[in-house]
Design goal:
Layout: E1 6-16, E2 22-32, E3 36-40, H1 47-54, E4 62-67, E5 70-71, H2 76-81, E6 83-86, H3 98-108, H4 115-124, H5 140-152, E7 158-162, H6 170-185, E8 189-194, H7 197-203, E9 206-211, E10 214-220, H8 221-228, E11 231-237, E12 253-255, E13 261-266, H9 275-284, E14 289-296, H10 299-311
Parallel strand pairs: 3-8, 3-9, 6-7, 7-8
Antiparallel strand pairs: 1-2, 1-4, 4-5, 9-10, 11-13, 11-14, 12-13
Helix pairs in contact: 3-5
């Protein structure tokens, strides 16, 4: 059996700002080596505060964090060297060239010059042709790639991406996803914060949902979908109905406004879905249908229901 190693260990972590704002309640979390972990949550939920503490930018009120076994306070330099951070804001040296700024970032972490590594990194990020361009001349998408190159320049084991595709177009988002998966294949551990549900659904191995400073669920993506996902059967009727007949009251049915569609929500993982008996009953009542189709609830549905339940 494969042993899962934690590369980040967060224990009893809290953060209360001087204003009295309690940004993080008690957080306990283990991030596994080599995984893509997505931290989902609405704006202001505490995502950025959490990763800022792990990266040594914000000081926790209580609790401990270790990165690759190094305590982020006691062994700050060692722990920080293991981390690359791509922040939300595009902060780059506008007048420097791409090559110069990435090379300089490597030196900041005490890494020796390695032109072949930087070249390969720029090629992987589709920046090689722009290596001599000043950053101020680049598009927003290219600047985002430079930020990732800077974060990876010192060969960290862990990469934090804080809302990596905020404000970029769909094509670039898909490029980013491919890039992140490629980095994971090379052995990196990726932690990304996002409010784009499709991003987490597309890339993550595990998902944590944070709301009002509290981790409300941490689960493998497939297990989360299986545990909380619902399926919906849509039945297209031959003739419109004005209301659901009394004879179908045993099933939780919803009639569409046009009267031509009946929707039945069920748990796909229960032993009996109730669909065969529903269709038999419809036949007995003389209700004809022309088509059936099934859809599964998305991670977005699950996320919304989790956060809504918590707020209620």
């Amino acid at each position: 059996m494969k042993t899962v190693m934690s590369i980040i260990s967060i224990s009893s972590l809290t953060k209360t700002y001087a204003s009295g704002l309690r940004a993080l309640k008690v957080i306990d979390l283990q991030i596994n080596k080599g995984e893509i972990f997505a931290l989902l949550g609405p704006n202001g939920a505490g995502k950025t505060t959490l990763i800022s503490i792990v990266c040594g930018i914000v000081t926790a009120t209580t609790g401990t964090v270790t990165v690759g076994g190094a305590d982020i306070v006691r062994d700050f330099r060692e722990s920080r060297t293991k981390i690359g951070l791509v922040p939300q804001e595009l902060t780059t040296d506008a007048f420097e060239t791409v090559w110069a700024t990435v090379n300089f970032s490597r030196g900041l972490f005490g890494r020796g010059s390695n032109p072949s590594f930087i070249e390969n990194l720029l090629r992987v990020l589709s920046l090689w042709d722009k290596r001599n361009d000043r950053i101020m001349t680049l598009s927003g998408g290219m600047k985002r790639r430079v930020m990732i190159a800077k974060a990876l320049s010192h060969e960290p084991e862990i990469l934090f991406l804080d809302e990596p595709t905020a404000g970029v177009d769909v094509e670039l988002r898909r490029d980013m996803w491919a890039l992140v998966r490629g980095l994971r294949k090379r052995g990196a551990t990726i932690i990304l914060t996002t409010h784009y549900i499709d991003e987490a659904e597309e890339m993550a191995d595990r998902i944590g949902v944070i709301s009002k400073g509290e981790l409300i669920v941490v689960e493998e993506k497939t297990a989360l979908m299986k545990k909380l996902g619902k399926k919906q059967l849509t039945i297209l009727l031959q003739e419109p109905m004005k209301a659901i007949p009394e004879g179908l009251s045993d099933w939780n049915l919803t009639l569409a406004p046009d009267g031509f569609q009946v929707e039945y929500t069920f748990d796909a993982h229960q032993e009996s879905t109730g669909i065969p008996s529903l269709l038999r009953r419809m036949d007995e009542l003389g209700i004809g249908f022309t088509d059936l189709n099934t859809t599964q609830s998305s991670l977005e549905d699950i996320f919304v229901s989790l956060v809504t339940d918590r707020a209620g």
